[in-house]
Design goal:
mainly alpha; 10 helices; Growth Hormone, Chain: A; 232 residues
């Protein structure tokens, strides 16, 4: 999401932070109630619900357009915050099922390491998907943008006239600027579609992960959450 806001809409760090804050702030309100849920429900079910909510928020971002920016991401970010808040503690509890008390420290370290490693791999994979899908979408759009189409010629003529009226006195240079501008428009549209496709892939992966969590070993994960909530 930060890459989308920066690459497509040119948001600076402050603007991106103000948008992403709605993914973190609601979790401060929800997380304190998660241990109580873990004391009443199976931690695997809580994690699966959280993953499905997370997937739903990703599906909400699969219809992006040039007008889809920070204001339109407000609701998906809040939904994503709810899903993430239901993941953190229950997922750790599920991972610790069957671990002896004297090995909890080492197991927790391995779990955190794998979570960070998984985040790094996930970010790299999603970035690769964005790149590949951008190339694909660019080829699809580019095949329709040819000089044999009257609408394309009209668009180039309009852009040429615009650059001629704004400081370019050479018709050839203005025409070249028009072609460059048209190429940038195609790239921007391709990038938006690529991010939409990537969010769809992310949603599918999250739903698949939710199904896998249900198949994990059942243990006293909920009791772990309950004991944590009762600690001072």
């Amino acid at each position: 999401m930060p890459q989308y806001l920066g690459q497509v809409h040119g948001y600076n760090s402050e603007q991106i932070g103000s948008v992403m804050a709605w993914t973190g702030l609601p979790q401060l309100v929800i997380i304190p109630f998660v241990p109580k849920l873990m004391a009443k429900f199976d931690a695997r079910a809580i994690v699966s619900v959280g993953l499905c909510i997370f997937a739903g928020s990703s599906l909400m971002n699969t219809h992006m357009s040039l007008d889809y920016a920070g204001d339109q991401m407000w609701i998906p970010n809040i939904v994503r915050a709810i899903g993430q808040a239901l993941l953190l503690a229950p997922l750790a509890a599920v991972a610790m099922v069957g671990i002896a008390a004297q090995e909890l420290g080492a197991a927790s370290g391995v779990f955190n390491m794998m979570r960070n490693l998984g985040g790094a791999f996930g970010t790299a994979i999603l970035a690769t998907i964005v790149t590949k899908r951008e190339q694909y979408q660019s080829n699809i759009i580019g095949s329709s943008v040819t000089l044999f189409r009257e609408t394309v010629r009209d668009r180039i003529a309009h852009l040429t006239s615009y650059f001629m009226a704004h400081g370019s006195f050479d018709a050839a240079a203005a025409h070249h600027q028009a072609l460059v501008a048209l190429g940038k428009i195609i790239r921007r549209q391709s990038l938006i579609l690529a991010f939409s496709d990537t969010f769809a892939v992310l949603a599918i992966v999250l739903v698949f992960a939710a199904a896998l969590v249900i198949l994990t070993k059942k243990g006293q994960a909920s009791n772990v959450g309950a004991s944590r909530s009762s600690c001072p």
